[in-house]
Amino acid sequence: SQTIHQWPATLVQPVGSPLSLECTVEGTSNPNLYWYRQAAGRGLQLLFYSVGIGQISSEVPQNLSASRPQDRQFILSSKKLLLSDSGFYLCAWGSYRADYGYTFGSGTRLTVV
Amino acid sequence: RKEVEQDPGPFNVPEGATVAFNCTYSNSASQSFFWYRQDCRKEPKLLMSVYSSGNEDGRFTAQLNRASQYISLLIRDSKLSDSATYLCVVSGYSSASKIIFGSGTRLSIRP
Questions:
Q1: Is A31 on the interface with B (CB under 8 A)?
Q2: CB contact under 8 A, B46 and A102
Q3: Best residue of A32, A42, A68 to probe chain B, by most B CBs closer than 10 Å
Q4: Which of helix, strand or coil describes residue B23?
């Protein structure tokens, strides 16, 4: 069966520090991968999505970037965190069939201090 | 106009009540529709897909109205454990389509 792993679960980082969040998927190949952010009490904001290795689409201009170095690995990065980057970051994967739905990792709760 | 809009609630209903949520979407080319459930401080989980003919899963019924571009979720005989935020999700048919989440409707079931 397919599983998605996301880490770390919780992270506290100072303003201006770098960020690297990792997401990996097992049990499937060529998944569509997504990064979402959810601010406290708010909805999910799509940040990036990828349909293949090295293919990244950005939805929101910001100081975050994403990379997909391997088929089942998706990384979210920042060179310098801002206070506004605090939130709940969620990675998700979907199959080639959009109507199959999407599965989320357990998320990373990031607090920038 | 937001791509996907939901009534944020909160809906506060007694146990055993029937409750319905609606969600509207702006892109008429949208092809795939889902309802997700999110518990406090947890990741969203797929509740059910929404099919053109409507579909039911136990106490939950989902409907799609393409002409009016909305989907609905009906929960019958609500349980305390149904308390959560319900997210409407819309995407295209292509595997390259991005998926758009509504901001969610908060439901609280009281004893």
A1: no
A2: yes
A3: A32
A4: strand
Going by C-alpha positions, the residue among A96, A105, A38 that lies closest to residue A73 is A105
- pLDDT tens profile B45-79: 999 999 888 899 999 999 999 999 999 999 999 99
Which region, left, alpha or beta, applies to residue A107 given φ > 0 means left and ψ of -120 to 50 means alpha?
Answer: left
Please give the distance of CA B80 from its chain centroid, rounded to a whole number.
18
Contact B99 A94 (CB under 8 A): yes
Residue range B101-111: mean pLDDT, rounded: 93
- Give the Cα separation of A28 and A70 in Å (integer): 13
- The residue among A66, A106, A23, A35 whose CA lies nearest residue B101 is A35
Nearest to A34 among B99, B103, B104 (CB): B99
Q: b/e per residue, B25-52, with b = 16+ CB within 10 A?
A: beeeebebbbbbbbeeeebbebbbbbee
Taking CA–CA distances from A91, the nearest residue in chain B reads B43
What residues of B are in contact with residue A106 (Cβ under 8 Å)?
A: 42-43
Q: Which residue type does A85 have?
A: D
pLDDT at B12 over 90: yes
Task: Please indicate if any CB of chain B lies within 8 Å of the CB of A29.
Answer: no
> From start to end of A28-86, where are the E strands?
32-38, 44-52, 55-58, 64-70, 73-78
